[in-house]
Amino acid sequence: MKRTGWHRTWVVRGLLMTFIGMTSRVYGDPTPSGLQLKIENLENRLSQLQNKPVVEATMADASGAVPAADANKKIDPFSEDDWTWLVGNGRTTSAVMDSKYFTPEVLMDVGYAHDFASPSDHTIVGSGITNRSSEIQVEHFGVGGDFHIPTGNGGDYVRARIMSQLGMYSQAIPRNDSTPGIGQWNLQNAYRYVTEMYAGYHWDKMYGINLDAGIFPSYIGLWSFYEAENWTDTPSFCSSNTPWFFNGLRIQTFPTPRFKQEYWITNGWQTYGNANNLPAIGSQTLWRPRGWIDLVMNLYAGHDATANPANNQFESGDLNQGRLRLHSDSSVVVKYYDHPESMLDKMAFSITFDAGCENGGGVQCMNGDAATPSQYMIAAMAYNRFWFDHDKYAITIGGGAVDNPGRYLVLLPSINGATAISGSPYFTTNPGDEFHAWDYSVTADYMPNQWLTYRLEGGHRHSSEPYWEGSHGITPPGGNTGNPGQTGILNPDGSTWTPDLVRNQDRLTLNMLVKI
What is the pLDDT of residue 45? Predict the structure, then answer.
């Protein structure tokens, strides 16, 4: 029970009288009137201390005085709880290097992958993260950080962030964008070496409002763009086949410290440019009501098919003139066990469900036919993670499945150097082309500190159609021809070359991940 001031006063008085009685037996009775005066002085002093305002222990200013606490000071969004356990959120709790105006950051992912098919060309299919077999590769090296310049207007500040994209990511990720094939200037070369590059402004309203413009990572698919922030090396299709970045405008609002509403106006779905003359729009709703649960939903709408322009559809009133893409992505992450004193100290699970489709331009969202096939994506993934020995070790088990007839979101195999611009005659992405797949993986992490992770992962993937790399690989004899659409390529023995595509992929990966 909380004690009031008079409780404390009488407790102190009782202790004083006990002390006086003890000392009187040792030293003799002091003067009664003097004792009474001392007691009254002590009581007055105690009363003054009780009524004195509490001063928060803060850093003294230049004069040496300690300022009083600001009772109205706002807390940062999502700072009331420890979220280092959350997938896609990162484990670092403080910046190693920091300054008043700039917080630097360094990211590194060095990996070795072994494909049990042993492809002769060392090429791995179906991943934007791991691309070569039986080799040590720098998948990603990022260096950059955050600028935060106060404006002098309360808590407002100018902000900017830049992070480089060096290593295999700079080659593997831009190839999935078809918009550089429209018009002039080489968009892929202009942007391929950056993962994030935006500037914006922060208003100290509600619990924060941010307006940013540039390139920023996508939130669709739950898993982070950066491997050091994830539970696994290669996620299932919900994350693998959804965008890694957006190029455009982002508005973030924080009405409460546990809720965020975000809006996007972008060029398109993982595109540097615009497939048509209409921008794409999207949103994210993020709610963390308690420190053990994370709820997030993303929505997207845009015209992303370069062969189906939507230039005048609103003027003509024909909403089917251009192909419209709609997509929803919802996730729940729950920490259901937390006992730091135990060897098994933490457990959490994540569930993600994606549903989307394209409509118009020769396809239907659902219930298609031979003339206008169905073009949709339904995918789900689930993972469970176990932490041991004060979070130094972790094991993650999980997987997922996807149905994507029309293959409009399937990562195109780089057969003979094929990209999203060129396409490939050996693996088409026409309306009605089926793609159904599932996967599972087991991941073991050793995390000696908050900045370093050693990761070992084994995984299996299966598809309804030949898609993954076989032992003979997907590169023509002598290397790529320079024309990904070329057919009739000959082997040295005079036979016709075809890529070796199979229905199953088994991989083992080993990574060292750094986030400083």
Answer: 57
